[in-house]
Amino acid sequence: MNGTVVVVGAGPAGLMAGLAAARAGARVRVLAKGWGLFHWHAGCVDVLGYDPVGGGRIVSLREGLAALIAARPDHPYGLVGVDGVLAALADVSTVCAAAGYPLVGSFDRNRLVLTGVGGARPTCLAPATMAAGDLDRGDPAVIVGFDRFLDLTAGLVAANLEHRGIPSRAVTLDLPSLRGRRFVNGPILAALFETESFRAEVAAVLSPKVGRAGRVGFPAVLGLEGAAAVVADLRRRLGVDVFEIPVAPPSIPGIRLHRILVAAIRAAGGRVHDGMEAVGSESAERRVTALLTESAARNLRTRADAFVLATGGILGGGIVGHEDGELTEVVFGLPVNGPGDRADWLRPDFTDPAGHPVYRSGLTVDAELRPVGDDGMPVFGNVHVAGGAIGGADAIAERSVDGIALATGRYAGTLAAATALDRSEEAAAS
Amino acid sequence: MTEPHAAITFGPDSTGRHHLPVEATLDNCIKCNICVTVCPVSAVTDAFPGPKYEGPQAGRFRHRDQPSPDASVDYCSGCRICNMACPTGVKIAEINARARARLVEEGLVGRRHRLRNNLLARPGTLSRLGGPVRPLVNALFANRAARWVVEKALGIHHSAPLPMYAGERFSKWLSGWKPHDEHPAGKAAYFTGCSAEYYEPRVARTAVQVLDRLGFDVVVPDQGCCGLPLLSNGEFDAARAYHRANVNRLLGFARAGIPIVGASTSCTLTLKEEAPELLDAMDDDARAVAGDTYDLHEFLVLIADEGRFPTDLRPVPLRLLYHPPCQYRAHRLGLPALDMMELVPELEVVQSLAACCGVAGTYGYKEEKYDIAMKVGTPLFEKVAEVGGPVTVCDAETCRWQIEHGTGVRSIHPIEIIAYALGLDIEGPLTKAIAASPTA
Question: Does residue A240 contact residue A214 with C-beta atoms inside 8 Å?
Fold first, then answer.
């Protein structure tokens, strides 16, 4: 009998942990209150965009990460090392490529991808569907918007590209097949782009307007399951490169990553359930024995041999701040390291480049990602923490959310599987 | 209609659970639109803009002294998939259900459709009326011309998968049933539900025999409709009467610590949560009944966890598609029926991973919603065709009928598999399927 690992949370950290644990032979249950980070973010893998120590944009991740870990060994990246990050990136790249949705990028050069307002964002891996939007390319672009689709203002993106010296033009399409609809949003456009008739309609209207542009940028709604094929088809029809621009939530590229990872966990024998909010746990002898989740009329008890806590930090909801300044961890009640006084949570200037102290708050963990108490000892021997719940990084300011989540998730999942399988062997022996 | 914010209480209730009233969860909405990406209805029709727009967003414009802002909330099927995906705990489907009740109260649902809704929502009453002339009603429902007349007169779609009356009601069978003599596991109260009483007594017969086989002294309390069809048609006052009557009849069992178990996932969810929550009726009695009510497989998993479920199970050499209904997932239990089926040797269960079959109780029966329901169900129907197999497995009655309607493949309740695995003599399509299996 395999050991059971319960992962709490289904963002990048939780899903990566679930995948690693399932592949290591554990019986995996990923339980999540709801869907989260993937549906909100750009669908890229940000590893480290800005240097939190010296400031400035990171070009080579290989060098930038090594320098960060040397300067700040207590940073979450210090727990996994450069090799741990590389292993996680390799895993996620392999899984996505196998799903027909390749990611592109290099550990030696952060890419600059376009944001939904035409800004620039450093990222390590981007889906191939965004590749032609690379801001290091200077060739002219046409930016496409859709009438009544409010999540991308093509004119704004094009104007900001012009500011960067990239000749750009905005085209907003008023299509007959959208005119009859009461609502036009990302999921609807993504479903329409999966149909040949809609692509033909778009290409027919757009083709005469491409002019001498070498590439055409669309809001990132070019299909959900078959995005690679949709982009290839549009490229063929338009005769120029086609790329996606991430827009406001719900993020279609993020949902693609979510679906790919969930499918990979299921293929490895694990299960992923939403609607199951963790509200507490049962423990004995410094081990957690069961997770309690909210269910209709009563709490549900799920027993496991090891647990991964991947509920996120102060932004993800895994850590909650209270009026008196206290910060609490919501599932196991673990001690949180952070500013104790509420007045110290935030700096006066919202855009202070040093970030805000409360965002660095989180759990202190040992080398095996186990949460430690004031005595420096693990609070529970069979709980491993991943992602934003680990303190020590202002991941938003650094642009390191995904890298930290995937690398610590992979490590925590591997450790939890080992813990669970040891545990189940002990049980089988006794 | 409940007054918005009339009874907002925060903090843990008497059972230690944190319970935020429906309207208060509206403030948790961060407008992230995740619900819009999972809604199976807005994905196929422009008539329903999506959970966020109809729930928390329109909710800001709803006040008891103001007219309802948007009648399209009636196109919410109540599947609760939005609730499950919401990262901030907004009770979107419940907000919509209450908004629909308000439409009904304001007379914004036309008289003909309201009459139809009231008929569809009272399976018990309808069955008692139709019961004595069962063959006639069955013949009528099987007649295409008659179904067109019913559609024109009442607005029940002529193709909707209306159930047929069974030859013998469950309660009649029960009166002649001989259970085991020994019951070491104590008593269990069985909540039958209207569908198993009138249309599919096979499911209830199988369920009580499984409980009996596991050592339970099964009692079937006097009971009425759980009220869910009325709730999902916005007929809250009528639903309140049904719910209260059931609470009164079941309270004695709850107070005595006798578990109330049901195989209809929607009935059990209604007793556990849906009725008391929507109706603001979560008093001590309702809470006692809710806390004592179990889905059948939830109950079996608890028994298995205690090592009280047999391990010498009869193999079921089949590969079957299992669709866990939305109303089952909304219990927030994971997949207990799948947990139980995984104990059965040689059985390979393939999860549908489809959002919804579309029918959502009475939703897919309605002339204006039938096409939507069929479109919602299409990915599931395609999955059935892809996986194949002699039968499909699904916990909820109307979903089984919808799957049969959409695929032509018979659909059974998972308890029928468990019963077979326990060595019980079972009836229906599963026995045939096993007999026809090449490896059997």
Answer: yes
Please check whether residue B277 is in contact with residue B78, taking contact to mean a CB–CB distance below 8 angstroms. Answer: no
| Inter-axis angle of helices A252-267 and A12-23, nearest 10 | 20
| Domain ranges across chain B | 28-105, 111-154, 170-304, 311-436
Residue A171, SS3 per DSSP: strand
A274 and B50 within 8 Å at the Cβ level: the answer is: no
Give the Cα separation of B210 and B179 in Å (integer). Answer: 11
CB contact (8 A) between residue B18 and residue A249: no
Tell which CATH classification among 1.20.1050, 3.40.50, 1.10.1040, 1.10.357 matches the domain B170-304: 1.20.1050
Contact at CB, A274 and B290, closer than 8 angstroms: no
Residues in chain B whose beta carbon is closer than 8 A to a beta carbon of chain A?
Answer: 15, 17-18, 32-34, 36-38, 42-43, 46, 49-50, 53, 83-89, 269, 272-273, 290-291, 293, 305, 329-335, 351, 353
Q: What is the fold of B311-436?
A: Rossmann fold (3.40.50)
d(C-alpha B56, C-alpha B89), whole Å = 11
Pairing of strands A4-8, A306-309: parallel
Whether residues B273 and A296 touch (CB distance < 8 A) is answered with yes
| pLDDT by residue, tens only, chain A of 430 residues | 469 999 999 999 999 999 999 999 999 999 999 998 999 989 999 999 999 998 899 999 999 999 999 999 999 999 999 999 999 999 999 999 999 999 999 999 999 999 999 999 999 999 999 999 999 899 999 999 999 999 999 999 999 999 999 999 999 999 999 998 988 999 999 999 999 999 999 999 999 999 999 999 999 999 999 999 999 999 999 999 999 999 999 999 999 999 999 999 999 999 999 999 999 999 999 999 999 999 999 999 999 999 999 999 988 889 998 888 899 999 999 999 999 889 999 999 988 878 889 999 999 999 999 999 989 999 999 999 999 999 999 998 899 999 999 999 999 999 999 999 987 777 777 6
CA distance B30 to chain A (A): 11
Residues of B with Cβ-Cβ distance to A186 under 8 angstroms: 33, 37
Three-class DSSP labels, A127-163: EHHHHHHCCCCCCCEEEEEECCCCCCCHHHHHHHHHH
- Residues of chain A contacting residue B332, judged by C-beta atoms under 8 Å apart: 275-276, 293-296, 300
How many beta-carbon pairs below 8 A join chains A and B? 100
